């Protein structure tokens, strides 16, 4: 095969015409011993789903049930998992389980509140090996409208919608990560398998799989603000835009920089953010404008399109850092209560130490780095560290990356 089976499944999904609306474009491919033995796509409401079409085409092509039990099914979207009034077709997970397919590879989750990870759980509960993430970016870009619609949809009190707490170590993807409306501060940390965050206190690393990175960008669109520090700004030069390629984000969060001395104004700091101000504003928190130099830097940055919010002398730590609690208060005054902190170890630690983090999203990559700053040693309250037995609520895999979600006992009025 020249293309990967997932590439082929994405190609198939693309063959659906506009009649597919309001359903998503989905493709599926069945592979046995490196040969495609079945394939299909979903043409539109009332028609077979891609998985059903792929299984059907394999059977019509002469595949036996024993062949299916050794086959791998590549799906561009998480298979659906329930029937309900108005649903046209049988649940794809039932078909997959009934045909005893050995392994299922899924590019992206179905954000439909009736699915949202429950399709994956159903398959895993049935003993089917499930891999998530290959081709995620292309699969997301197949259905920007569908994703945007589903991400903003909630079915409160609907017995079909997933229960709030799936208990420890559940494989369910938390719907709160997919639905805007979840208040609080989420801290995102990416580490190697042994917990290394980066080579130094300021630097972060791009070690997570591309699929996980795309997914993180989609999730970003569910927050009102994303906070980071000067170190991350200068070393990573991030843009922090929401949405994967071709995917319409729910919103672009306000980019918030904590920069006590306004070093972002440093000559030579060639900030990529400057070119993204059309997508949304950037707000810089700093210490008091108590010197001509600070006033000058503030003016320079404002002239480049940044907003500046100076804090009081009492909000500056003797060692130079800004009080993260005060930053959150200012954001709350602006109506911002759903915040993502995506920054280097030092600032992450100050949010954790102040007890301001409600949720920890730990992206853990199966690589070993051997040296660097270790989250378990450096971050107070990090799971696996000296003083924190913590309840992991969810864990799932995106590409090669393991994503873990923890609820922290935060002292946060959000
Ligand atoms: C799949 N495979 O090919 C598609 C899925 O009304 P129905 O029965 O067609 O169900 C529509 C929902 O099924 C849709 O909102 C989305 O959640 C899922 N689409 N799922 O397993 C497919 N098209
Ligand atoms: Zn289905």
Automatic annotation (TrEMBL):
Record flagged with keyword Phosphoprotein: no
Pathway: Cofactor biosynthesis; riboflavin biosynthesis; 5-amino-6-(D-ribitylamino)uracil from GTP: step 2/4
Domain CMP/dCMP-type deaminase per the UniProt entry, residue ranges: 1-131
Family classification: In the N-terminal section; belongs to the cytidine and deoxycytidylate deaminase family.
GO molecular function, one term: diaminohydroxyphosphoribosylaminopyrimidine deaminase activity
Protein name per UniProt: Riboflavin biosynthesis protein RibD
Pfam families: dCMP_cyt_deam_1, RibD_C
Biological process, per Gene Ontology: riboflavin biosynthetic process
Keywords (A to Z) from UniProt: NADP, Oxidoreductase
Region: Disordered, residue numbers: 155-176
Keyword NADP: yes
């Amino acid at each position: 095969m020249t293309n990967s089976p997932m590439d082929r499944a994405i190609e198939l999904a693309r063959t659906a015409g506009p009649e597919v609306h309001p359903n998503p474009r989905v493709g599926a491919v069945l592979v046995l011993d490196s040969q495609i033995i079945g394939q299909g796509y979903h043409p539109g409401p009332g028609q077979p789903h891609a998985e059903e079409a792929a299984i059907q085409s394999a059977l019509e092509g002469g595949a036996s049930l024993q062949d299916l039990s050794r086959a791998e099914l590549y799906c561009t979207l998480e298979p659906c998992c329930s029937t309900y009034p108005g649903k046209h077709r049988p649940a794809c997970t039932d078909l997959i389980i009934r045909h005893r397919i050995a392994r299922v590879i899924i590019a992206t989750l179905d954000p439909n509140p009736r699915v949202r990870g429950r399709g994956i759980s159903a398959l895993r509960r049935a003993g089917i090996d499930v891999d998530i993430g290959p081709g995620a970016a292309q699969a997301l870009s197949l259905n920007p409208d569908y994703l945007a619609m589903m991400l903003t949809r909630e079915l409160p009190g609907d017995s079909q919608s997933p229960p709030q707490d799936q208990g420890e170590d559940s494989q369910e993807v938390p719907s709160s990560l997919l639905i805007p409306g979840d208040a609080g501060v989420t801290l995102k940390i990416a580490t190697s398998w042994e917990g290394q965050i980066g080579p130094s206190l300021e630097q972060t690393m791009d070690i997570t799989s591309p699929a996980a990175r795309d997914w993180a960008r989609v999730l970003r669109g569910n927050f009102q603000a994303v906070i980071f520090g000067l170190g991350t700004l200068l070393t990573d030069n991030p843009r922090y835009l929401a949405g994967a390629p071709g995917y319409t984000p729910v919103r672009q969060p306000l980019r918030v920089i904590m920069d006590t001395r306004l070093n972002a104004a440093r000559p030579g700091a060639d900030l990529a953010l400057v070119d993204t101000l059309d997508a949304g504003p950037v707000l810089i928190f700093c210490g008091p404008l108590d010197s001509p130099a600070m006033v000058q830097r503030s003016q320079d940055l404002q002239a480049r399109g940044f907003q500046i919010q100076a804090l009081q002398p009492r909000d500056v730590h003797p060692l130079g850092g800004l009080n993260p609690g005060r930053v959150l208060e200012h954001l709350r005054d602006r109506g911002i209560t759903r915040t993502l902190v995506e920054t280097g170890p030092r600032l992450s630690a100050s949010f954790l130490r102040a007890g301001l983090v409600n949720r920890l999203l730990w992206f853990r990559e199966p690589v070993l780095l051997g040296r660097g700053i270790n989250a378990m040693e450096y971050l107070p309250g990090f799971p696996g560290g000296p003083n924190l037995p913590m309840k992991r609520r969810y864990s799932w895999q995106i590409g090669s990356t393991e994503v873990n979600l923890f609820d922290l006992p935060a002292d946060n009025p959000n």
